[in-house]
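Handout, page 2. Input:
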Amino acid sequence: MIPLALPAVGNDAELNDTPATALALTVGTPVVGHLGYSRSAYADVDNVDYYKFTVPVDGDVTFTTTTNSTLYSLTTVYDSNGTSLINSAYTGYGGVNSVTIGHLAPGTTYYVAVSRYSQWGTYQLTTSEASPTDANDVENNDIYSKALKLTNNVTSTGHLGYSRTAYGDRDTTDFYKFSAGANGDMNFSLTNSSNLYALVSIIDHNHTSVIYSFYVGYGATGSSTIPHFGSSTTYYVSVTLYAGYGSYQLKRVFTKQAIKGDTETNDVYLKALLFAPNTTKTGNLGYSRASYGAVDSSDFYKITVTQAGTLTINLTNTSTLYDLVTIYNTNGTSSMGSFYVGYGAAGNGSVSLPAAGTYYVGVSLYAQWGGYTLKNTFQ
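Output:
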């Protein structure tokens, strides 16, 4: 009697020769099997073993095949349809070889096959996953209508480039939305993982007009400050895949205009704010309203006097504002005098009021944006 030589490694549960009969594989748990052994007849050999798997989190999965001295194998990873090749690697007799599949994501079933390339023997297939350190964003936020809230001074994290329903169906864009809540400037910063290159776009209220955009390279940090946001409009930020895949950290930091704004809208003399004699007002000019490009360009005030006299107007600007002050007659349209005040400067002008009545003061934007302090003296 010829003694039977048994393989040292246990067999897989047969039949698992097709994607339809694939055995479940848990990432992180090794599986073992036999290839090249005869079945119903000596020539009917087991040529391939299929396994199916999903990943618990976004990440890269490494498949490592170890063969005994009589088996030469091919390890092939397939897409969710069980037939489209993603990648493969040969393992020689008594060898160890690995193949890593990048940007896999939960929710989709993939397949891996260990095939006999030559002869027969046993194998062990091990798997491990490397996942991003930053948490994923809540999907699906690929369009503006599903944008996630971007809270001021809070870091939001997300992933781009990871597969979804199929390996080639990748998450390429994440949308966020925000409202400034006051007049001011906003800094946006993005930090990428080492394998991600992305584009950040700040988008107007209509969700299509790009206000500004900037690229951030692999493992880099980029930032940009966007000026003169208004208080109540909703804007959007998109982070778009440019190359690679990975995780990111997105943050916005709002700097509020230090000088209190005037009560809007007072853009025409008919809506002028009351400006009692010998008092001070503060206001803002150049800040966006319904859209980023629609800025507040004029503020009107009205001063009622009970007798003739001299009215002096003093204006002080912040460093980013250049404006024009005009004093109007009682009809609200005829100029009695005007003067410009530059960036971070102070200026004044005086006119003689011929009689009692209500007169008007207009502060008009000449360049940029900022806050101002307005004072009147009547004597």
